[in-house]
């Protein structure tokens, strides 16, 4: 239906008319933009119209545990190649909507541990607050443990899961979030890389949602732009054991028969 819609749009306006698409949030493949632009170009050719604007949308990524995107220059290069291959005129404008890539590094959330039960930590913020992606997208954001006196503790890591303060069973962030085994009630946890879809997704559900905002000048937990380390490795818990299982081939006639098969 795209060609017919493009033709109808072109006939209905004398102002700017364009095409827009979205390759998906946290896109890890720069070539996805080039492929989407090729599809848009084919639709324009079939419609027999020229676009005044080509909007490649958002999807530009940031760094999270286990997710290390290519350099942003690779995305720009792929978009440039895609635009050069499109059937457009000289004055066609190229738009993009970088959100996450611009602001993910700009914000952290400081939460308090209200209760600890085994590997479950109950916090004063959750999926209805600034941790929407941690609950519904199951993203394991980077975390850091801070004692009441501000001391940062980074040893003896163990995987934990988080629960928020509301009465809803979906207020659960499975993680895993790697924190020192000594984390306890009254401690604070800094959850990093929450500049995108953090505060913006926060609600007042169940009467929660009040926060204080503080401006700080420290580096983010990771950075696409050289402000901090380029990746956030997923730590291996110290108590984790590696189990090796060896399979031996049966001896004698049974083994020879199996080899012939």
Quote the average pLDDT: 87
How does the overall form come out from the CA principal axes?
Answer: elongated
Corresponding CATH superfamily of the largest domain: Alanine racemase
Count every helix, treating DSSP H or I runs of 4 or more residues as helices: 6
The portion of residues assigned to helices is 10-25%
Biggest sheet features: 7 strands, mixed
Going by CATH, the architecture of the largest domain would be Alpha-Beta Barrel
Topology summary:
Layout: H1 2-12, E1 18-20, H2 31-47, E2 53-55, H3 72-85, E3 93-95, H4 100-103, E4 109-117, E5 120-123, H5 132-136, E6 143-146, E7 152-153, E8 157-163, E9 172-180, E10 188-191, H6 253-260
Parallel strand pairs: 1-2, 2-3, 5-8
Antiparallel strand pairs: 4-5, 4-10, 6-7, 6-10, 8-9
Helix pairs in contact: 1-2, 2-3
Labels describing this entry:
261 residues; alpha/beta; TIM Barrel; Lyase, Ornithine Decarboxylase, Chain A, domain 1; 2 domains; seven-stranded mixed sheet; three-stranded parallel sheet; 6 helices; elongated
Would you kindly provide a brief summary of this structure?
The chain is of the alpha/beta class and 261 residues long.
